[in-house]
Amino acid sequence: MPDADVPSDIEIIKQRKKDGIDIPLQKDVQARATSTYLEYVKLVHNALPELDYDDIDLSTTFLGHRFSAPLIIDSMTGGTDEATVINGRLGELAEKYGLGMGLGSQRAGLKSEELASTYSVARKNAPNAFLIANIGGAQLAKGLSVDDARKIVRMIRANALVVHLNPLQELVQPEGEPRYRGVYAKIVELVKSMDVPVIVKEVGAGISREVAIKLEMAGVSAINVAGSGGTSWAGVEKLRADMVKDRKKARLGEMFWDWGIPTAASLIEARKAVKVPLVASGGLRNGLEVAKCVALGASMSAMAYPFLKAAAQSREALFEFADSVLAELQSAMFLVGAANVRALASSRYILTGALAQEVSRA
Q: Where does substrate bind (predicted)?
């Protein structure tokens, strides 16, 4: 008979998922000594845009689906009561605004129907939106099967499946599993076996050109670079390690807090290396940064923390934030004279500072 004082697997998962919401919202776990490098990207002002603001078309097509803007609500949460409310609001936003939406890692949903509902609420509120199911590379290495992946896709009737790569987070996480041997072969197997597009993403440390090339060779449908400069998941796990007095993990989290490839640098080097569609994420906070990422070669951009913060506050705050982001994106397009996303993608930009130096050395 199990010890009544020992938490069950479900309770442990729910607490970890709750920490993943509470810590970013209540503590400062943003990048400290680095940034996304997007501040070093300057779009060129067009004083004669020859278009009307209201005529600008933000819509775009990605993986065969039409989006009202090149924006995805990036993978965040699930597996806890708070996530039900947040995912419900985010799903409502994705449906009304025609945006994409990723769910948090869904391994928890395989263990419990109760936890599965914290993810499926997104589809309930977004019957027509492009939803992205989510599994972890570490879980693939542990033996998560193709059948399990299919169950995860069915859980939210997903339009695509993302495999998230988080070796740094697994390394620092007190209960982490930094075992990545065999993950690439599993990705290749998923690409061949799934009947939805397979996307691979990082979670805040970036995708290098070498990894991008390997993923393109694997046949993935898109890559989300998810660079550094935003929320530090090493920082999140460092604070969790402090809570359980795991000094070794806490020291690792402190040391590697700012580890990774800045978002703009990751996007540029991946774009030069591969032709597969790219999603830019990692520390994006406004519509101007979305515009910069499209100009740098991203097919889509994605945000997590800003949507999480607004959704946790209220439905009204969430919709107000989305309105602001889309207005900022449209304004940037007006100011560079881009009537649509295709024109924005070919807009001229200037690289400055540390980013220009890094690109020149590459």
A: 16-17, 105-107, 169
Rounded to an integer, what distance in angstroms lies between the CA atom of residue 51 and that of residue 43? 17
- What residues does each domain of the chain span? 13-361
What is the 3-state secondary structure of 17-52?
HHHHHHHHHHCCCECCCCCCCHHHEEECCCCCCCCC
Alpha-carbon distance of 273 to 163, in angstroms, equals: 20
Q: Is 151 assigned a ligand-binding role in the annotation?
A: no
- Is 169 annotated to bind ligand? yes
305 is in an annotated binding site: yes
Q: pLDDT of 269-291, one tens digit each?
A: 999 999 999 999 999 999 999 99
Locus of tokens 């097509």: 61
Using alpha carbons, select from 136, 135, 359 the residue that is nearest to residue 261: 359
Mean residue pLDDT across the chain: 95
Sign of the four-CA dihedral 213, 217, 220, 221: positive
The per-residue pLDDT for range 20-39, each reduced to its tens digit, is 999 999 999 999 999 999 99
Residue 243 to residues 82, 166, 248, 251, 259: CA-CA distances in angstroms?
20, 21, 13, 13, 22
Record the tokens describing residue 343, joined without a space: 């024109």
Report whether 26 belongs to an annotated binding site.
no
Helix, strand, coil % in the chain, rounded to nearest 5: 50, 15, 35
283 is in an annotated binding site: yes
The model's pTM is: 0.95
Whether pLDDT at 139 is above 50: yes
348 is known to lie in a ligand binding site: no
Percent of the residues in the chain that have a pLDDT greater than 70, as a whole number: 98
CA–CA dist 268, 355 (Å, integer): 10
Cα–Cα nearest to 344, from 328, 329, 355: 329
Report domain 13-361's class: alpha beta
Q: Does the annotation place 1 within a ligand binding site?
A: no
